[in-house]
Write a structure and sequence with these properties.
Elements lengths: L1 E3 L5 H12 L4 E5 L6 H5 L3 E4 L5 H8 L4 E4 L10 H19 L3 E7 L10 H13 L6 E7 L5 H9 L3 E2 L6 E3 L3 H14 L5 E6 L4 E3 H11 L8 E2 L2 H10 L4 H15 L18 H13 L1
The protein binds NADP nicotinamide-adenine-dinucleotide phosphate (NAP).
């Protein structure tokens, strides 16, 4: 049995689907049965409950040879960092209670710095917690770059590509398909031991101006230009979109840490450089949504 957290979300849903297609027994965790129905129809067991409850998680992790673990990006919680710690601690307790031996954790670039990197600081604290689990628990943390799917939120919210990043700052961007593909291979092969991490950085680095140009061309709006927002203006736009004060502050801080050079540490090589280009993502995913 392989158990998937965040199973109604992007990475979790794709990972669960691929494992089921490979003939694996899969259990999927979420807060409501409806959003897991498509996986139930493919043969998954479903476990509906709250990820901050140790008893629920212990039961959901039982008989699992491996768990795909993530800290949910809850939009509304009043103290996002405290929420990440509460869920992270419950997950670690449940891993021990249920005797799980293999964990693939969805982590992020920037976790090496738990002081400046906003939303990522909580993932860094969770990596530290997971790395302190007993020796018999193997943990592989996937330190992913920012997701290409974040561009969907930007287009919906601002009608363009807008963040507080300086236009010339280069960042990697990864499609969640590529993260799920990597996770699926590790979960099928269980070829990791001890405590380790793998950077996944997307196909190349892009300046913010380049990102806007590629996206604009693909969605038939070549005139769109990258917009750099002041930190406070950006945070206020997130608040208006219904994101809690605490999470909006941390999201904005993450961008500031990139501008200030605290963020990227990942090393490019043939494993960390993944397949999907922004041109392909924009053509296949963004164009049908925004053209
Ligand atoms: N976005 C980025 O650029 C980026 C980069 C690196 C790492 N990450 C990390 O990637 C992870 C997100 O992956 P994703 O984008 O695949 O997820 P996603 O699509 O946002 O899905 C998140 C899942 O979390 C669940 N969830 C939300 N709030 C919850 C709560 N309060 N309690 C329990 N479950 C809750 C949702 O399930 P239900 O609502 O069905 O319960 C949903 O299945 C996060 O840990 C994020 O920090 C993101």
């Amino acid at each position: 049995m392989i158990t998937i957290t965040g199973a109604s979300g992007k990475i979790g849903s794709k990972t669960a689907t691929a494992l089921l297609k490979n003939g694996k027994s899969v259990r999927v965790i979420g807060r409501n049965a409806q959003s897991l129905q498509h996986l139930k129809e493919l043969g998954a067991q479903i476990a509906v409950g709250n990820m901050s409850e140790v008893d629920f998680l212990t039961k959901a992790f039982s008989n699992s040879e491996a768990v795909l673990l993530m800290l949910p990006p809850d939009k509304e919680t009043s103290d996002f960092g405290a929420f990440q710690d509460q869920v992270g601690e419950a997950q670690c307790e449940a891993i021990i209670n249920a005797g799980v031996k293999n964990i693939v954790f969805i982590s992020s670039q920037g976790v090496h710095d738990v002081l400046h990197t906003g939303t990522v600081k909580g993932l860094g604290r969770q990596e530290l917690r997971l790395n302190q689990l007993p020796d018999e628990v193997n943990v592989l943390s996937i330190r992913a770059e920012g997701f290409m799917e974040n561009l969907i939120d930007s287009l919906k919210l601002f009608n363009t590509i807008a963040t507080p990043l300086r236009p010339e700052v280069k960042t990697g961007l990864i499609a969640t398909d590529d993260i799920a593909d990597f996770a699926v291979q590790r979960l099928l092969k269980l070829d990791f031991t001890g405590k380790s991490y793998q950077d996944l950085l997307g196909d190349r680095d892009y300046s913010q101006t380049e990102i806007a140009a590629i996206v604009g061309a693909a969605i038939g709006k070549p005139q769109i230009e990258y917009v750099q927002y002041a930190y406070e203006t950006y945070k206020n736009a997130l608040l208006k979109a219904g994101i809690s004060e605490s999470r909006a502050t941390l999201i904005t801080e993450r961008y500031k840490s990139i501008n200030d050079g605290y963020f990227n540490e990942g090393v490019r090589n043939n494993i960390s450089t993944t397949q999907t280009s922004l041109e392909d993502f924009a053509q296949n995913i963004l164009s049908p949504m925004f053209r």
